[in-house]
Amino acid sequence: MSPLSRTAALTLATLLTGCTLGPDFHAPDTQAPAAWPALQDQAAASRPSADPLDVTWWQRFDDPLLTRLIQRAVDDNLDLRMAASRVLQARAARSTLVADRYPSVDAGGQLNRARDSARGPNAQSGQGAYSVWDLGLGASWELDLWGRVQRQVEAADASLAGAEDDLRGVLVLLLGDVARHYIDLRQVQATLGVTRDNLDVARHSLRLARQRFDDGVATRLDVAQSSAQVAAIEARLPLLEQRAGDELEALGLLLAQPPRRLAEELATPGPVPEGHGTFAMGLPSELARRRPDIRQAEARLHAATASIGVAEAAFYPSIRLTGDLGLQALQLSELGNWDARRFAFGPVLNLPLFEGGRLTGTLALREAQQQEAALDYRKKVLTAWHEIDAALRRYNASQLRRDHLAEAVRQSRTALDTAQRQYVEGAVDFLNVLTLQGTLLSNQEQWVASNAETSEALVTLYGALGGGWQAFDGDGPRTAAR
To answer: Model pTM?
Structure first.
């Protein structure tokens, strides 16, 4: 090969490969701590460990019905399916940008019936109308000299990753919402059971007061106070039943079910789900790869960084190779003649000279957007650490409160039984019985609520850790196509 040929080949290779403008993206440092913050009170029953995160955390509650509800929500939830549709949209948008990497080829044909003006420059041909047949192929390809197309595709890839992480984020929220509403439903049902049990006790006390009044050893005040106690407990039932219905409807909406569809399935009370033992949190350094919102923020930062390269490439000239090959004739029968051929080839150069500040403004906008995306990423990471710390403290406190309330319930029940016996024996006033009965009911309700709060705190902790979506990853986009 001659020196001239080698130079031409090198020049062509340089034009074809070009260079890529703009900053390259590097994943930011999350500055994760070496270990999770320890629980403040070592008396808590459960402690965090660095073992791999349990991505199917809902199975820790050992409640098959909860597991089935979660699977149905993943299959049918409308918010999740809309998020999956956004993934498909991002994928389709990416494909339109990837097409700029390749030449575009078009085929066309047309028939024009025309007549030139007899008074115009083609006056001699203006005596009659004529037909023009035209068939051809056109091709166009922009040389990506400065990496504009490459950066566009890179930004689209990042946007697609962000849409996928948005889907994962919706899934994490959905898993937590289903678990929380189910726990709340079981809490209300348990509270209803406690209230009805106490109502039976109050009615027994009322019968006892009436019997002693009839025997002349009790006053009408005892009967009135006991009747008021019964009425007060009965007044709790309608509100609790309403709350149970609200939780059923909330679950039905998450499962995309019409109103009252789940009433029969969940009408039978069940125990409040409880997590047991230690819980695995994984390594702190893994958090950025687990939390969908952090992953999505990183994808937005990546897209914003790549967009700077697109804006910078707009300052440089662009070269588009074009070609047109076809046949043209006045008669259809003449299209096959060699003389009917036509062609045109050549590069098209576009060099921006004056844009009135448009290019400069666009570049400044992209750089500012990247700065905002970087700050948003830092905020997402910082928020995640705060949420985890708060969830740990809440889980620890709720466990301790639950255990203390369990002891309070045991002691209140013993005190009430003792007071009832002493009242029958005439050793204590009936007001003591009523007071202890109210205390027992209050402690029982608080214990049920604390038990549910402990379970919800564990659900919140797993949500803060970004757990759950891994068990279904890849299923979401298919739901949109169903």
So the answer is: 0.84
